[in-house]
Amino acid sequence: xxxxxxxxxxxxxxxxxxxxxxxxxxxxxxxxxxxxxxxxxxxxxxxxxxxxxxxxxxxxxxxxxxxxxxxxxxxxxxxxxxxxxxxxxxxxxxxxxxxxxxxxxxxxxxxxxxxxxxxxxxxxxxxxxxxxxxxxxxxxxxxxxxxxxxxxxxxxxxxxxxxxxxxxxxxxxxxxxxxxxxxxxxxxxxxxxxxxxxxxxxxxxxxxxxxxxxxxxxxxxxxxxxxxxxxxxxxxxxxxxxxxxxxxxxxxxxxxxxxxxxxxxxxxxxxxxxxxxxxxxxxxxxxxxxxxxxxxxxxxxxxxxxxxxxxxxxxxxxxxxxxxxxxxxxxxxxxxxxxxxxxxxxxxxxxxxxxxxxxxxxxxxxxxxxxxxxxxxxxxxxxxxxxxxxxxxxxxxxxxxxxxxxxxxxxxxxxxxxxxxxxxxxxxxxxxxxxxxxxxxxxxxxxxxxxxxxxxxxxxxxxxxxxxxxxxxxxxxxxxxxxxxxxxxxxxxxxxxxxxxxxxxxxxxxxxxxxxxxxxxxxxxxxxxxxxxxxxxxxxxxxxxxxx
Length: 548
Known about the structure:
Helices cover about 55% and strands about 5% of the residues. By secondary structure, the chain is mainly alpha-helical.
């Protein structure tokens, strides 16, 4: 009897020395650096406060004017030599230092360009997914991981040198085109860049029972990279040098080519049996296992006649339509709030480096805390309650925002605490929605359902800089929007069923019944013709953070 690919891993080692080496290697040479180009704009696109030049008759305002303040736009009506930018914590910002805003003079009527440059990295991910979403299927995971990874490193470095805004913006778009901004999901049809190909590749090298370990380790590495970025940005105040310092380490990815194998499942599906056998034997040898000859008689699933659904099938039944729309909205909101909290670090008061650090470090307890919540209280409550608590934190930031100049430091501290509270719970909700959505969609449409949800998350990420920009209109708007959207998403999730301990749905005519232990089947219908996809070899994305 032929074994499955996962069955072979149980023989040669589901997670042994070989997989541990690959995990450490990948985390060091690639994953750790992925967060830097995405979040870098938090610092280099932050608009500094300004103040009137001493003894100037045209400008006589006292103190520093910050974005969203009552007098912040006053400078747009006076001459440029009447005011100057202020570094919140050191000295006056010159044309060549610290902020992108000052280098390209992105102020007043040009202020939106800074926000555009922040959103372009997310927009690049959207375009990449639409144009090259199936390249990983055709050419393999390895070539995409290193091609796009090298592009990320190269254009991160080149971003330091443009003297015109449009060229800098183009480089940011190319970086976004090469990296995935809604990490990490092993979805195939809406994801092709270095990040997703990397995630799929690394999860395909372990057995199914260790994919949760791989997924969790990647989240921790992502969080540690953001914590490190806060320190690097604090030490390197020149924006050009910051681009170089954060881009240069990623060059080490080229050395990983010589140690990285191709995906076993991809080799099997493509019929490259000799290469697959060599890799199986190498894994077995490093793990200290024996590989029997009969274990190489592997069922690749190529002869399976089951059909996979397409996008239209997500709306074939009322139940599935509801699941699709709510799932998409939840992903959209989680991504928008998650990235929005980071991007708000310079504008909520206090030290923006400390704000960013706190927003990052709070993820460390949120990751294991989320896993415990999903398994103890279920997927549904594990998404709803954290989302509502995140909404409460965002609402707290709104309620604490005031124009009162007294006790500004105390108020800023409470606002930052509310921000950290919101960030902690939105992290748990964001992790949970990965698991919850994968269990809600039936097998035949799970891939396209998760891909569609990921697409909605991309748009949420893309819009987050513009939500933060609304703080110039009124300081209450950004977190007011976050609170409202998270509240709506939390209540909408109440319309969905619990999935913990429920069998996986197989076809689109099954529905999960609340309070039951299984899926109730209705009359099966044949999927529409032409929906067959050759993606059965992709790892199941279900519950990679779950220990159930």
